[in-house]
Amino acid sequence: MAMPVLSFFRRHAWPSMLFGAVAGVCLAGSPAVAQGVVKSKHGDWEMRCETPPGASREQCALIQSIAAEDKPNVNLVVIVLKTADGKARLLRVIAPLGVLLPAGLGLKVDQTDVGRAGFVRCLPSGCVAEVVMEDKLIEQISSGKSATFIIFNTPEEGIGIPLELAGFRDGFSRLP
Q1: Which stretches within 68-159 are classed as H helix?
Q2: 1 in a structural domain
Q3: Is CB count within 10 Å lower at the N or C end of the chain?
Q4: CATH number (domain holding residue 41)
Q5: Is residue 80 assigned to a domain?
Q6: What pLDDT, in 10s, does the model give residues 80-107?
Q7: How many CB atoms lie within 10 A of CB 77?
C-alpha cells in the first residue's frame, strides 16, 4: 500500500556526493555519535564538518541525537545538510534497526502533521529516511518550537520521539 507523502516531505534518491555522516553513526546500545569535528553549537544542534575523501572542500551538517522519552534505548540521529553542489537541502533521519519499514517515518512540527517519508535503505548503523527540504518545510522547522519524529514497531504502535528546534534557524543559516 502506497503511503501519502506531502510534496514538501517527499522521498529523494540517495545522492553519492553527500556528507558521510551516515557511515559514522553508531546506534548500537548507546547514544548516537557522528564523525566530524564540532564547529559550533546552536541550541541542541551541533554543526559537524569533515572533508570527505576526494572532496575539494569541507562539508558540514547540523546534527542532533535524540531518544524516546519512555524508551531511552530507541535513538534517532537527525541530520540536515546541503548537498556538495549546493542545489538541495536534505533532512536525513537514522532510525534503529527493527523499525517497521513500510510505515515510514512520520513528522509533526508543533503538533501539525507534516507527513511521512519512506526509508531508503538500512545500514549496520540503522535505517535511513531522507527527504529534500522544500522552503515550506524549512520555514516550519525554523519557526517551530518542537518536532516529533514517529517510528513504528508495529502498524498499531508508533513511538513519538521529541526534538527541540531551538537554534535550528541560526545553525541552518550558517551551513556552508
Answers
A1: 135-143
A2: no
A3: N
A4: 2.60.40.1880
A5: yes
A6: 999 888 889 999 999 999 999 999 999 9
A7: 26
